[in-house]
Design brief:
This protein has 187 residues and is of the alpha/beta class. It is built from 7 helices and 12 strands. The strands form 3 sheets. A 7-stranded mixed beta sheet has the order 6-3-1-7-8-12-11, with helices on both faces. It has a 3-stranded mixed beta sheet with strand order 2-4-5. Strands 9-10 form a two-stranded parallel ribbon.
Length: 187
């Protein structure tokens, strides 16, 4: 099923380097008619990775300390190890995610992306998945961790979409566009 994201503004919240699993979700949002924006701690450029190799660079649209929940409809937290490990130390990024959650807006995280959600205490009581090495961190933060390609959790004030790894990107992208669709936002 295809979802229309016309008028939906999605923040791709990332560190300025070490980003993985970002291009396919970005393309899914744009192909569905949504607007995708890079939100990062520092202005300038962000750099993606293909495993351990540097890959593409993209301009930053907004810095985390100026990002407002009122300006966005949804969030994607891409993975990689370095990206979320750096991002979770950025208080402004964590505050932004907390504000998005409090506003009831959907958040999607893949691979190591949920690390940043842990910092905001945003996974307690939620059913999630992730890269397998995060399961102890997520359980210690109060989440119920499961080993599935994608999990859509509505047990909370917002929809939380999580996924494990690059092999799960097709399922992740379908779940994201469904969760971000305006009819889903009203639910």
């Amino acid at each position: 099923m295809s979802y229309e994201l016309k008028g939906v503004r999605v923040a791709f919240v990332v560190a300025n380097e070490g980003i993985e699993e970002v291009l396919r979700p970005w393309t899914a949002v744009v192909d569905a008619g949504g607007t995708a924006e890079v939100v990062a701690p520092r202005p300038g450029m962000v750099e993606t990775m293909r495993h351990l190799d540097r890959a593409d660079r993209f301009p930053v649209d907004q810095v985390t300390d100026r990002a407002l929940a009122a300006d966005y409809d949804a969030v994607v937290l891409p993975g990689g190890v370095a990206n979320p490990d750096q991002l979770r130390t950025d208080a402004a990024a964590v505050d932004f995610l907390m504000a998005m959650t409090e506003a009831g807006k959907p958040i999607a995280a893949i691979c190591h992306g949920p690390w940043t959600l842990i910092e905001g205490d945003l996974v307690a009581g939620r059913t999630v998945t992730s890269w397998p090495s995060l399961q102890t961190d997520l359980r210690n933060a109060g989440a119920y961790w499961v080993d599935r390609d994608v999990v859509v959790c509505r047990q909370g004030i917002n929809t939380l979409v999580t996924s494990r790894k690059p092999d799960d990107l097709d399922a992740f992208c379908r779940a994201c566009t469904a969760a971000f669709a305006p009819t889903s936002l009203a639910v």
